[in-house]
């Protein structure tokens, strides 16, 4: 299991230290080739020909099956989406809310999800609030117990908080919700492709292929527990969710496809399948997660030795996100200075922090380069910038 060999498949990993998997994963050459070949083939056949349409149907089936495998669920429970956020909106707008219902979020949800909830609350007379889970200093369940209200109908949480890298205990939260008849919507943008997933006890789990799975942008996934598949009203809906074309009463598909909408870039599916096949050629999901957390822990430890640098988490991250603040530099400036040196990290406004995303594809040398660059910047010895920004 040679990591150098695996990295050779990624053009973006050849001449830079790419630590932005949590923003967008790089596409491997087999995925790029497969997508281009699919577009070319479609044009050779004629994009709306019987052959092309049969191919689309087959690819749709394979993509759904592939994503079901990554989530460890049945293909019938999968709704293909374009993004994590779209998965959230299908659930949030589809739930039959009553005025006065309450939604509980963590204090670290992604802005797109928060905006959707705020809009929903305004439209339907709901209330919503947040609870402090970004830095789980207390027991998660204790915090949730203090925050839920008699009217709380849904908990909207990230599996992995995108700014701090805290991982929330899904099984315990699922049991907590089940006891109170609260529905659980999980944003898995930062967890799909990072760790082996078990969505038992989760009602809705949404994620995307374009981050840690290194698939193309524009293809995401929503798991809907079969119990709620029909209860969820088709709101973001269209012809793809129908069982057949009819101008009478619509017959919605019996499976997760009922919540899909319309024409999309079907070619992206072959790209995601190719990315997944490549990952699977390097160990098991557990082995990839093990390597990633070991590297993240090494970085977290080394960052702890840099003066005037504060790590957001008080413990090694149980995922690939390592976030920190460094004195004298805004997160934006720090990300820019690092990019000048070929090291790509991102500033996350939500945590006022700089975030390095560590993948199983990351190497120890890349961590050394990042730590060395931070030391030079902190010491004012960076050849690219001179003195630190005040
Ligand atoms: C936790 C979380 N949720 C949602 C998103 C948005 O993802 P998408 O563009 O797939 O909707 C992100 C992207 O960074 C994220 O980190």
Automatic annotation (TrEMBL):
Entry-linked Gene3D superfamilies: Aspartate Aminotransferase, domain 1, Type I PLP-dependent aspartate aminotransferase-like (Major domain)
Keyword Transferase annotated: yes
PROSITE patterns on file: AA_TRANSFER_CLASS_5
Annotated Aminotransferase class V domain residues: 61-368
Superkingdom, natural source: Bacteria
A molecular function GO annotation: transaminase activity
One Pfam family matching this protein: Aminotran_5
Keywords (A to Z) from UniProt: Aminotransferase, Pyridoxal phosphate, Transferase
Cofactor: pyridoxal 5'-phosphate
Keyword Transferase found: yes
Family the entry assigns: Belongs to the class-V pyridoxal-phosphate-dependent aminotransferase family.
Name assigned to this protein: Class V aminotransferase
Organism whose genome encodes this protein: Gloeomargarita lithophora Alchichica-D10
């Amino acid at each position: 299991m040679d990591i150098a060999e695996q990295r050779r498949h990624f053009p973006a990993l050849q001449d830079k230290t790419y630590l932005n998997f949590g923003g967008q994963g790089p596409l491997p050459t087999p995925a790029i080739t497969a997508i281009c070949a699919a577009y070319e083939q479609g044009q050779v056949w004629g994009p709306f020909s019987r052959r092309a349409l049969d191919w689309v149907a087959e690819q749709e089936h394979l993509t759904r099956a592939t994503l079901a495998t990554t989530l460890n669920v049945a293909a019938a429970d999968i709704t293909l989406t374009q993004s994590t956020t779209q998965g959230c909106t299908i659930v949030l707008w589809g739930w039959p809310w009553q005025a006065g219902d309450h939604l509980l979020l963590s204090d670290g949800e992604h802005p797109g999800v928060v905006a959707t909830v705020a809009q929903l609350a305004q439209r339907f007379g709901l209330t919503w609030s947040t609870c402090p889970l970004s830095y789980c200093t207390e027991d998660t369940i204790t915090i949730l117990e203090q925050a839920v209200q008699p009217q709380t109908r849904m908990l909207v949480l990230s599996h992995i908080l995108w700014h701090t890298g805290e991982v929330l205990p899904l099984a315990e939260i699922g049991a907590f919700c089940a006891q109170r008849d609260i529905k659980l919507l999980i944003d898995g943008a930062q967890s799909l492709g990072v760790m082996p997933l078990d969505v038992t006890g989760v009602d809705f789990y949404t994620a995307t292929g374009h981050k840690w799975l290194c698939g193309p942008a524009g293809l995401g996934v929503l798991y809907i527990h079969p119990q709620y598949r029909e209860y969820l009203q088709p709101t973001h809906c269209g012809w793809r969710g129908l069982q057949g074309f009819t101008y009478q009463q619509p017959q919605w598909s019996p499976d997760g496809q009922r919540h899909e909408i319309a024409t999309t870039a079907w070619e992206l599916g072959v790209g995601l399948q190719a990315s997944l096949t490549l990952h699977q050629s390097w160990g098991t999901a557990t082995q990839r997660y093990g390597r990633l957390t070991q590297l993240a822990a090494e970085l977290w430890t080394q960052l702890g030795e840099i003066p005037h640098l504060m790590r957001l988490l008080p413990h090694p991250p149980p995922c690939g996100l390592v976030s920190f603040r460094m004195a004298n530099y805004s997160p934006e400036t720090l990300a820019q200075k690092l990019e000048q040196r070929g090291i790509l990290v991102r500033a996350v406004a939500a945590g006022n922090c700089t975030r390095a995303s560590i993948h199983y594809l990351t190497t120890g040398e890349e961590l050394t380069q990042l730590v060395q660059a931070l030391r030079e910047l902190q010491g004012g010895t960076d050849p690219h910038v001179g003195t630190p920004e005040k």
